[in-house]
Amino acid sequence: MTDWVVELIDAGGYWGIALLMVLENVFPPLPSELIMGIGGIRVGQGRMEMIPLLVAGTIGTTIGNFFWYLIGLKLGFERLKPLIDRHGRWLTMRWRNVEWLDRCFERHGDKIVFLFRFMPAFRTIVSLPAGLFRMGYIRFTLWTMGGALIWNILLVAGGYYLGARFERIDDWLGPITNVCIAAIAVGYVWRLVRWKDESAG
Predict the structure, then answer these.
(1) Which residue numbers delimit the VTT domain (predicted)?
(2) Quick check: helix, strand or coil at residue 25?
(3) Tens of pLDDT along 103-122?
(4) Measuring CA to CA, which residue among 117, 137, 131 is closest to residue 61?
(5) What distance in Å separates the CA atoms of residue 155 and residue 175, rounded to the nearest whole number?
(6) Are 158 and 166 in contact (CB under 8 A)?
(7) pLDDT tens profile 36-50
(8) DSSP of 95-110, one letter per residue?
(9) pTM exceeding the 0.85 threshold for the entire prediction
(10) b vs e for 18-34, b when ≥16 Cβ sit within 10 Å of the residue's Cβ?
(11) Is 88 in contact with 94 (CB distance < 8 Å)?
(12) Residue 106 burial (CB < 10 Å; 0-12/13-18/19+)?
């Protein structure tokens, strides 16, 4: 994966960075750590500049997050009820769980979207409930961009200071990503096994 990312960045420059960051948020297995880290390496080599790199990365991240946000907005909170009633067991959710999430986003949506930007896997997934629970466009955009900018600064700084060594991030990032996915899968199976049908009895 590293070679393909490097080639696209070198061929497309800032546009390549923006495109990769859009794709990273639509297809989470493509890691932002690798993309922005390599961008940081290019800054250290004098082949890119810091500000345009951060602008391109942050805009790409925000656009990518809107993909899932708009899907959630299109589905809509109201359409969830029959879905939960019919498939609640397989979703491991009850309607009261959905109502609780709705209240959380109403009160703390800004913090949730901002903080989840720093969490592997969840930083993309959080955009879906933000749309489902009708978080406003402006709030979603501002908090997504704010969290993305800080995250990108950290990644670019890592690439800048670690240099070529950062290109080896894919060697350990892949296993970490696999562990996170496995943990999510195990958690889902655990909830499924312990699920109790409250309508029975």
Answers:
(1) 31-160
(2) helix
(3) 878 888 888 888 888 776 66
(4) 117
(5) 19
(6) yes
(7) 888 998 898 889 999
(8) HHHHHHHHHHHHHHHH
(9) no
(10) bbbbbbbbeebebbbbb
(11) yes
(12) exposed
What values do phi and psi take at 52, rounded to 5? Answer: -60, -35
Q: With contact defined as beta carbons under 8 Å apart, do 18 and 60 qualify?
A: yes
User: For residue 148, what are its two tokens?
Assistant: 């993305």
What whole-number distance in Å separates Cα of residue 166 and Cα of residue 183? 26
Q: Which tokens is 199 given?
A: 């309508």
Whole-number Å distance between alpha carbons of 66 and 127: 7
Task: Please say whether the beta carbons of 93 and 198 come within 8 A.
Answer: no
Q: What is the C-alpha to C-alpha distance for residues 151 and 36, in angstroms, rounded to an integer? A: 9
How far is Cα of residue 158 from the mean position of the Cα atoms in its chain? 19
Residue count of the chain: 201
**b/e per residue 167-183 (b: at least 16 CB within 10 A):** bebbeebeeebeeeeee
Using alpha carbons, list the distances in angstroms from residue 6 to 16, 28, 101.
10, 18, 39
Q: Do residues 124 and 64 touch, judged by C-beta distance below 8 A?
A: yes
